[in-house]
Amino acid sequence: MLRLDPMTPLEYERYLAYAVEDYAQAHFRNGDCDPVGLLWLALMEREGRPFIYIYDIEIVEARRSQGLGSALLGLAEDYARGIGVSRVSLNVMGWNTRARSLYERHGFGVTGIGMSKRLDVKPS
């Protein structure tokens, strides 16, 4: 059985060591309480319409390819429905084909395009 649990202060401190953001919402745990990943989401609003935004979703390396990413997305969707929100959004890097495939299998579609430009820089 899978469930979402709030991070403990120590877990949050460890998370902040590599994510310089405000607050991670939940760890993703299996039935025996071992953390298997995390989900950081927030209720947002755009043009008067609420939506859930997934800031970060991770599965522990050793537990990948076991359906846990799908289960975690399902929990995020259940949470959204439970508070009456009908849209979930996230960003994914174009090079992350594994994550993109997961999100597409769950009905997520492209809503934007990221752009970058390489600059010529002279050594100083």
From TrEMBL:
<feature type="domain" description="N-acetyltransferase">
    <location>
        <begin position="1"/>
        <end position="124"/>
    </location>
</feature>
<dbReference type="InterPro" id="IPR000182">
    <property type="entry name" value="GNAT_dom"/>
</dbReference>
<dbReference type="Pfam" id="PF00583">
    <property type="entry name" value="Acetyltransf_1"/>
</dbReference>
<keyword id="KW-0808">Transferase</keyword>
<keyword id="KW-0012">Acyltransferase</keyword>
<dbReference type="GO" id="GO:0016747">
    <property type="term" value="F:acyltransferase activity, transferring groups other than amino-acyl groups"/>
</dbReference>
<protein>
    <submittedName>
        <fullName>Putative N-acetyltransferase YycN</fullName>
        <ecNumber>2.3.1.-</ecNumber>
    </submittedName>
</protein>
<dbReference type="InterPro" id="IPR016181">
    <property type="entry name" value="Acyl_CoA_acyltransferase"/>
</dbReference>
